[in-house]
Structure formats: C-alpha cells, structure tokens
Design brief:
Layout: E1 7-10, E2 16-19, H1 25-34, E3 42-46, H2 52-63, H3 73-76, H4 88-93, E4 101-104, E5 120-125, H5 128-142, H6 149-157, H7 166-179, E6 183-187, H8 188-193, H9 195-206, H10 212-221, H11 224-228, H12 262-275
Helix pairs in contact: 2-9, 2-10, 9-10
The structure holds 3'-phosphate-adenosine-5'-phosphate sulfate (PPS).
Amino acid sequence: MAKYKHTIVKNGKGGYVVFPPFVTQKEMDLIEEKFVVRDDDVFVTAYPKSGTTWMEQIVHLTLNNGVQGDKVLSEAVPWVEGINRYQGVEKLLNQQAKPRRFHSHLPYHLMPGAKLNLAKYIYVARNPKDNAISFYFHSCSKLGYDGTWDEFFDLYIQGKVGYGSFFDHVLDWWQASQKSNNILFVKYEDMKQDLRQAVKTVADFLGVKLDEELWEAIASQSSFESMAANPQANLDWVYQRPEFPKHMRKGIIGDWRNYFTTEQNQIFDEIYLKSMKDTDLQFDFGEGIII
Ligand code: PPS
C-alpha cells in the first residue's frame, strides 16, 4: 500500500488522532501555550476538503465590506496550525485585521477557546463521499501522496488521513454546535444550493448588516467560477503537482459517483449508517439522496 505521510497527536479526549505530517505535537503544544483567544475572534473551521476556503472567502468579504484586498486568502484568514510553519506566532496572533479571523481544521477538542465558547466558530461540513474524493485529489496534488483511489479509500474509512476520522470530527462539532450559540454549523451542499442565503446566515451570525449591493458583491465573488479565476483564492501551492487539478477542482455535489465502485459504495454506506445512527445530522449526496 502507498504510504500516506502523517503524524500522530493527542486528540484532547485522552486518545490520539492522525494528523498531516506538518502539524505535529510541537505545533499543538505551541498553540496551547501561546494562543490567547479574544471574544471577537472568528474561526472558520472544517474537516479538510469540506469548503474551508469557500467559507474563508465569505467571512473575509463580509468583514471587509466586500473588498478582496491585497492579501491572498490564506494570509487574510491565516491558518491556526501554521503557527510554526508559515506565518509564525507573532504574525498569526498580531493580525492587523479586527476582528481577527482564522481558519483551521482542528477537531473540536483541540480548537483554541471552543470548549469555553470564547469566540465565534463557523464549521463547514460536506457529505463524506464527495469529501473523500476531494481529499484524495488534494493528497495527490499537494501532499505528495502517490497511491491509488482504492488505497486512499481504505485509509479514509479507517480515519488514517490528516485530521483523523471524518465522523469523529464532524460529529464532535455538530454536537457542540447544538449546545452553543457561538458555533454556526453550515453544510457545503446548502451553500451550493443557495449561496446568497449562506452569505446572509454568516453575516447575521457575525452581526454584519448587508445592504443589497454588498450582499450581491459577496455572493458573486464567492461563486466557484469567481474563486477559481481569483489567484488570491485559487492559490498556487508550492507543492502543487501540475498534473493534478488546482484547489478549485470541480466544486460540485455528487462527483463521488465518478469514482466510487459499487463495492466501495456498499462498504461506505454501512460505515456511514453505523456512525450516524445516533445523530439527526444528515447529508445531501446529490440527486435527491439525503441520509
Ligand atoms: S482545504 O485544503 O482543506 O482547505 O480544502 P477546502 O477549501 O476545505 O475544500 C476544497 C473543496 O471546496 C471546493 N470549493 C468550492 N465549491 C463550490 N463553490 C466554491 N466557491 C468553492 N470554493 C472551494 C473546492 O473545489 C474543493 O472541492 P472539490 O470537490 O475538490 O472541487
């Protein structure tokens, strides 16, 4: 089996979780030690490949009066786990932007301030079949993974990919969101179905009043087509392998049908139903399948 590079960190619940190799226990300890959360901080958070960048764009434009500005999105809404690797502690925490805004893929129990409701958190979730496909392409294009889809599928269903099991991640955030007004839980598929409404929901959550013009400007600059054509959003990654698609790959619901075999679909459905049996959370898998 192809090697998926990873590290293992403490999951904040007495166990361990698989992380991408560049987010080690060292970064997590640094975050715990240095990251002082402010009550007006805004965190965009998601299991990887669920629409994080999309929500970063909406939040950034909403808090920036619809103006994209000079910075690339990953600097305008910096990455918490990049505390050591990219921006460094000072740059991450002493942002010019007010309120400060961040993005992260951390599980609920590791997210700065989340358990104490110290800030605002917008969590984006996506149906796990499309998520797995997007994750596979991301792993090949940007993380140097050279395995097949079939091999990746096995890793994904075992939670042996970066940030661990989809189900643990999403369900912890979902349960927390049911008990907290500080967590807005948004689904990728709902954003896809009605982007204008998603923008409104986010603006309301952040306490930003939208007039029609601003509302339209944010929605239009957050469409897949706009973001794909925007080099500040559709970043050229240093590690990007050119033979694979860029970050804005397809941006659709139901692409999993082009890759899942019938057998993989059966295996996945069993795992899905078992993992989701105690929750009222449902996902839209496209073509009217909502489970
Ligand atoms: S990452 O690397 O974890 O931050 O990736 P993330 O941004 O969470 O997810 C990338 C997928 O989101 C899609 N995307 C969008 N879809 C629809 N509309 C818009 N505006 C949009 N922006 C990003 C992106 O295309 C990736 O999904 P796939 O299925 O791979 O295309």
